[in-house]
Each structure stands twice: as structure tokens, then as C-alpha cells.
Amino acid sequence: MMQLTQFSNTSALNDAFASRLVSILQQAIAERGEAYLVVSGGKTPQALFNTLSQVDLAWDKVTVLLADDRWLDAHQTDSNERLVKATLLQNNAKAARFISLYANVASAFDGVAQVLPRITPLPTFDAVILGMGEDGHTASLFPCSEQIKHGLADNAPAVLAVQPQTAPYQRMSLSLPRLLNSRNIFLHLVGSNKLAVLNKAMAEQDVLAMPIRAFLHHPVAQVTVMYTEN
Ligand SMILES: O=C(O)[C@H](O)[C@@H](O)[C@H](O)[C@H](O)COP(=O)(O)O
């Protein structure tokens, strides 16, 4: 199920989104003593990360991880880990714990053995922030990849290695069931081209053609779309 929340500009969206996330994380800390926040890389969330990094929160009780990363060491420009460390894990949020999806081996496929034990034991997440590509991928669940059925399967492991055919780098991605195991799921979209992709995803059901549909059409999960045109 999908609920669309529309904002008049990026800063209104980021302010509202940051306060919503803060109340979710605060409630988690109050109830369970810790909070788990899953974020996406790419261009869309960068300004949100900056806003979020400055909020007043018991960040030392928050664990941050990525929905997916490119198989690059954390010093390389296109690494999502680099991005999160440079934008989100700054200011107050520097105190948060970060769990990496990377290991220093040549291939993501070889890295699964090291990354899986970091993610499998984690409890239900408090918030997952997804992004979406113009081909309908989310996290690194790419429609073009050989691994897509594996990543969308009900019994998929928490993480899997993915080789996209239409995007650079091997990826490490959380699977559909691991991402769905969250108290709150958001989809963060900026720009009318992303709204057009969302509308296309809503219009039909084929999840292998557009993996984001597995979230949007899920019979139980509620996906809150945070959207602004610019
Ligand atoms: O590693 C990644 O690239 C992401 O996590 C990916 O799923 C991203 O969210 C979308 O591709 C949207 O990317 P943009 O925000 O750059 O449009």
C-alpha cells in the first residue's frame, strides 16, 4: 500500500521528513533502548542527510546502515558509505554506529560471506528510506540483473550480491524481505520524472519489470512516499 505525501519544495520536505524520523527514532529508543535507520545512497537524500545530522537525538543509541552499496572501498567517490559518512554521520549524528555493507575482497559475490553475518542478526528496523531509479530499481534490486528473483524471494537472505546490467559496479543489497522488516518504510522522490516512474509502477503489477512494485503493491506493508517536484 502506498501513501503519497507531497511537498512544495525540497527544504519543506527535508524539514518534515527529518522531524518524522526523529520522532520514530526517539520512540524506538524510549521503547527498546536503541534505534535502527536504513538509508539509501544516490543523489536524492544528500540534503536530507545534512538536515538530519544536526538534529538533537541520542545518536549514540542509533545504528545506521545502507539499503545497498556499490562494491567500492569507502574512499571512492561513488561509494554510498563515503556519502553517508560525509553527509549524515556528521555534527550530532557523528555519535551513531554505522554498519558497512563492504568488505575488502575483490567481488561482492565473495563478500557476501563477510557481510551477511553483520546484517542477519539485526532486529526489525525502525525506518527504511528507499530511493528509486528510473528503471524502477530500489536499493540495488535491479530489474535487469540475474539476481533479481533471488533478491525479491520471500525466503531471500538479508543481503545479496547483485551485478546490474545497466548501472556501474557490483552491488551489495539488502533483500526485499529484510527491507520490509521495518516499522516504517519511506520512498524519497524528488523531481517530476520520478513521479512519472512512480505512476508507471502503480499502474501495473509486474515486480520483475519494476522491483519497487514489490513495496508499493505489498498487501501489508505501508510505504509513505515523500515527494517534491523540486
Ligand atoms: O546506490 C544507489 O544508487 C541507491 O541506493 C539507489 O537505489 C538509489 O536510491 C536510486 O538509484 C535513486 O538514485 P538517485 O537518488 O541518485 O536518483
Task: Compose a concise summary of this entry.
With 230 residues, this protein is an alpha/beta fold.
What is this structure's SSE topology?
Elements: E1 2-7, H1 10-32, E2 35-39, H2 46-53, E3 62-66, E4 68-70, H3 80-87, E5 97-99, H4 108-119, E6 127-130, H5 148-152, E7 159-162, E8 171-174, H6 176-180, E9 185-190, H7 192-203, H8 213-216, E10 223-228
Parallel strand pairs: 1-10, 2-3, 2-6, 3-5, 6-9, 9-10
Antiparallel strand pairs: 4-8, 7-8
Bound molecules: 6-phosphogluconic acid.
Q: How would you explain this protein's 3D organization?
A:
With 230 residues, the chain is an alpha/beta fold. It has one domain: Rossmann fold (3-Layer(aba) Sandwich), CATH 3.40.50. The chain contains eight helices and ten strands. The strands form two sheets. The chain has a seven-stranded parallel β-sheet, with helices on both faces. Strand 7 and strand 8 form a beta hairpin. Helix 1 packs across helix 2. The longest helix has 23 residues. It is globular and about 45 Å long. The two termini are 25 Å apart. The protein binds 6-phosphogluconic acid (6PG).
Strand fraction equals 15-25%
**Order of helical and strand elements:** EHEHEEHEHEHEEHEHHE
CATH architecture name: 3-Layer(aba) Sandwich
How many helices in DSSP terms?
Answer: 8
Mean pLDDT across the residues is 97
Low-confidence stretches: none
Helix content: 25-40%
CATH class: Alpha Beta
What is the 3D shape? globular
GO biological process, one term: carbohydrate metabolic process
Catalytic activity: 6-phospho-D-glucono-1,5-lactone + H2O = 6-phospho-D-gluconate + H(+)
Domain Glucosamine/galactosamine-6-phosphate isomerase: 9-216
Function: Hydrolysis of 6-phosphogluconolactone to 6-phosphogluconate.
